[in-house]
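Predict structure. Chain length: 92.
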Amino acid sequence: MADTLIPVSIVIGDRSYRIKINPADEEVVRKTVKTINDKIVDFKTHFAGKDMQDYVAMVLVWFATEKNEHLSSVMEEEKWKEGLAQIEKLLP
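Prediction complete.
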């Protein structure tokens, strides 16, 4: 599997990183990096911070919260589906 990874350079904040990713994931990685950098600019515009690390930390909290909200809604949907399936079993 490691043979199929491709090296890409990404920039987050003011730092450049060289990472290896699956070629199929390249578009998602680049879009994610763009979202992160856009959010950094947004936070820099609206909040005071001492340095780039502060803004990256703010984005990290935002990103994790967004993912948890999505995860919560997916779990809630699964609960509804399970409940409906149980009701359907009870119907003649």
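Summary: The mean pLDDT is 85.
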